[in-house]
Design goal:
6% of the residues lie in helices and 43% in strands. By secondary structure, the chain is mainly beta.
Length: 334
């Protein structure tokens, strides 16, 4: 009986630890005055991709948009390839109040709006796509496992067809990919069957068992890191963080921290947005600029640019009343 009780508590805990995408959560009302006195100052010039009201845009941050790359659908989370010429995103085909019940389809499109093609057949729940940095320019993403066993990591190729995608992890346990390293490793969250739940550097092995190295991180002992993004030189990460393990949409703090892939470890975390943990607003999706001088992110319902050198933050979305999310910068995958 005692063993059963311990197992039950552990299983319930994992329900909170497995990432649950939060795109469908209500977006709080605009509160830009807390972020930048409601003003749009002109930032350094950065080109990026982002979601606005269900459409994908490529634009210079801080300038009014032209036409969207995609329209007539609900398209989410465009990630820019390291080669600088393509985006990978997911299209929602079936909505549901429970986000993990969405049916989606992964697409690739050129940044000029040409060459749109699907990588999956639109019968799965596929989320949070990005690109490898190892020179292969491989699109990867997370696919919901059968039943309620979290997600697994998938990959395809540019020009790939639905059905040609391959699994990098199994369906028996949860693995969620965040970002990739130049040496081919992938930073993941995983409920590893032997090493337990945590954050790892995963080295995929197509012919055998992948290697998992646990990332030492003091913050991870007290709460959840999410939407982790690796700097171009791979010495820093930025991410969302919440204290506690029951996932929440609003009230998260955005952090920058040092990253050492040889140990591996995430250390010296410093908050740069929502340090006060405003419980009513959604701060999310921090992403690096290619020169590592700044980070773009969304604080519902707008986009912001944080500059590391002077600690300044400016609003870089321009259409009042629009819902902006999921910014990326040119040639800078997650």
């Amino acid at each position: 009986m005692k063993q059963f009780l311990v197992f039950s508590i552990f299983a319930l805990t994992l329900l909170f630890l497995v990432p649950e995408p939060i795109e469908a959560e209500p977006i709080p009302l605009n509160d830009d005055k807390k972020q930048n006195d409601g003003e749009r100052n002109q930032p350094d010039s950065y080109v990026g991709s982002y979601y606005r009201d269900g459409e994908i845009f490529v634009n210079t941050y801080g300038e009014p948009e032209g036409k969207p790359l995609t329209t007539g659908h609900w398209d989410f989370k465009p990630s820019w390839s390291k080669t600088g010429d393509m985006l990978v995103f997911f299209r929602r085909l079936k909505n549901d109040p429970v986000v993990t019940n969405w049916i989606t389809q992964i697409h690739v499109i050129n940044v000029d709006g040409t060459g749109l093609h699907p990588l999956t057949d639109g019968t799965h729940t596929d989320f949070n796509q990005t690109w490898t940095r190892d020179g292969t320019n491989t699109p990867i993403w997370n696919r919901k496992n059968p039943g309620k066993k979290g997600f697994r990591v998938m990959k395809s190729k540019i020009g790939g067809k639905p059905g040609e995608e391959e699994a990098l992890t199994g369906t028996t346990h949860h693995t969620w990919a965040y970002t990739c390293l130049a040496d081919g490793q992938i930073l993941v969250q995983c409920d590893h069957p032997k090493q337990g739940w945590g954050y790892y550097l995963m080295t995929p092995n197509a012919s055998g068992e992948s290697k998992f190295e646990r990332i030492n991180c003091a913050l991870a002992k007290e709460g959840l890191l999410d939407r982790i993004s690796l700097s171009p030189d791979e010495t820093k990460v930025c991410f969302e963080y919440q204290t506690g393990f029951k996932r929440k949409t609003t009230g998260r703090t955005l952090y920058i921290a040092d990253f050492n892939f040889t140990k591996p470890a995430i250390t010296n975390p410093k908050p740069f947005a929502n340090a006060e943990k405003d419980p009513k607003r959604w701060f999310a999706y921090p992403r690096w600029t290619k020169d590592e001088a700044a980070i773009v992110y969304h604080a519902s319902p707008s986009l912001y640019l944080y500059t590391l050198k002077d600690g300044s933050t400016v609003k870089v979305s321009t259409k009042d009343g629009a819902d902006y999310r999921y910014p990326h910068c040119e040639a800078m995958p997650k």
